[in-house]
């Protein structure tokens, strides 16, 4: 419980964070528990890291901890049963691995405990510094594809991580827990109002990826199996778009939300819908494009990517060890 208290969260009401992070409602707290733990009121606005100690004190209160653990034990048993039904137990679990976008191994740490597989490794898209705090053997039990151990505020990725995460998401909402229904187990996903645009975005985005792959295979056949592309070059065009978007790029992301309930923020717009200046967007470069009326007038035209950048990307494709411009 103390570990969960130290994971970063956004400024929010205590009553907003408790159900998302600890699976209990604020109304279930014993009377006066928040004040006894050091908060100024029963339902204060809290922020990380300023209120970590008070939050840790609250969940360490025997009465509060008992409520949390009772809820968590049921969810953990259902999760273990679901993994068992999927065959991911025993030796198979020990031979398996977690695949996730990243970043500091908190999910890996939790699954190791739930599945009783302390050696469970993980393959990540990106890992952040201090991952060893959650995974002590991270040097041998974790691997980041695009980058490993990124320091705080040191890269374009960390500025735009919400957009990278969004393009990986499928059409389902965030996983909440495993529930039993009619004698069978099923995953329950968050059905967040306002997430419809993001789901449509994911559907079209992934369909575009598949179309691109089919085009490349049609053009090069089995030779694509020999292409060797460095991770940073594979992400080069996307990273360049995030730092220097065209108006049309920003328009594509308009109205798409990033779900961040675990951190207490709920849904946040990546680029606010036009005509809603009160909304703050996560992607400042994209929002700036749509705030420029001259650029907005050109938003219907096709963007022209820097040819030199794309040629650098495509030249990285290699067949049979020999460089080949695609």
What does this protein structure show overall?
It is a single chain. With 326 residues, the protein is α/β, with parallel strands linked by helices. The chain has 17 helices and eleven strands. The protein has a three-stranded parallel sheet. The longest helix has 25 residues, at 196-220. The relative contact order is 0.09.
Notable characteristics:
11 strands, two-stranded antiparallel ribbon, disordered C terminus, alpha/beta, globular
In short:
The chain has 326 residues and is α/β, with parallel strands linked by helices.
| Fraction in beta strands | 5-15%
End-to-end separation: 52 Å
Helix content: 40-55%
Count, helices: 17
Q: Name the poorly predicted regions.
A: 317-326
Radius of gyration: 23 Å
SS-based class: alpha/beta
Tell me the layout of helices and strands.
Layout: H1 2-6, E1 12-13, H2 14-22, H3 33-36, E2 45-46, H4 52-60, H5 62-85, H6 90-95, E3 98-100, H7 106-114, E4 122-128, H8 138-141, E5 142-150, H9 156-159, H10 161-168, E6 175-181, E7 184-189, H11 196-220, H12 231-234, H13 236-243, H14 247-253, E8 257-260, E9 266-269, H15 284-291, H16 293-297, H17 307-315, E10 318-319, E11 322-323
Parallel strand pairs: 3-4, 4-5
Antiparallel strand pairs: 1-2, 6-7, 8-9, 10-11
Helix pairs in contact: 14-15
């Amino acid at each position: 419980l103390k570990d969960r208290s130290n994971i970063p969260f956004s400024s929010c009401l205590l009553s907003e964070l408790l159900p998302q992070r600890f699976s209990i409602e604020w109304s279930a707290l014993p009377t006066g528990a928040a004040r006894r733990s050091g908060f100024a009121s029963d339902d204060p606005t809290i922020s990380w890291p300023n209120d970590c100690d008070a939050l840790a004190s609250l969940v360490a209160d025997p009465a509060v901890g008992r409520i949390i653990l009772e809820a968590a034990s049921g969810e953990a048993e259902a999760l273990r049963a679901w993994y068992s039904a999927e065959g991911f137990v025993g030796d198979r679990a020990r031979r398996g691995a977690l695949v996730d976008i990243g970043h500091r191994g908190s999910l890996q740490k939790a699954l190791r405990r739930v599945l009783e597989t302390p050696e469970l490794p993980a393959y990540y898209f990106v890992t952040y510094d201090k991952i060893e705090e959650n995974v002590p053997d991270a040097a041998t039990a974790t691997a980041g594809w695009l980058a490993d151990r990124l320091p705080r505020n040191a890269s374009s990725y960390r500025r735009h991580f919400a957009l990278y995460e969004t393009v990986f998401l499928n059409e389902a909402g965030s996983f909440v827990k495993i529930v039993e229904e009619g004698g069978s187990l099923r995953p329950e996903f968050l059905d967040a109002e306002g997430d419809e645009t993001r789901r449509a975005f994911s559907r079209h985005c992934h369909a575009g990826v598949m179309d691109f792959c089919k085009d490349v295979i049609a053009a090069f056949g089995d030779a694509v199996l020999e292409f060797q592309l460095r991770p940073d070059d594979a992400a080069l065009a996307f990273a360049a778009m995030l730092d220097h978007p065209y108006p049309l790029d920003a328009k594509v992301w308009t109205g798409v939300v990033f779900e961040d309930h675990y951190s207490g923020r709920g849904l946040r717009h990546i680029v606010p819908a036009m005509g809603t200046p009160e909304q703050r967007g996560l992607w400042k470069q994209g929002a700036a494009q749509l705030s420029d009326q001259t650029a907005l007038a050109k938003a219907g035209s096709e963007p022209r990517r820097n040819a030199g950048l794309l040629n650098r990307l495509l030249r990285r494709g290699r067949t049979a060890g020999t460089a080949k411009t695609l």
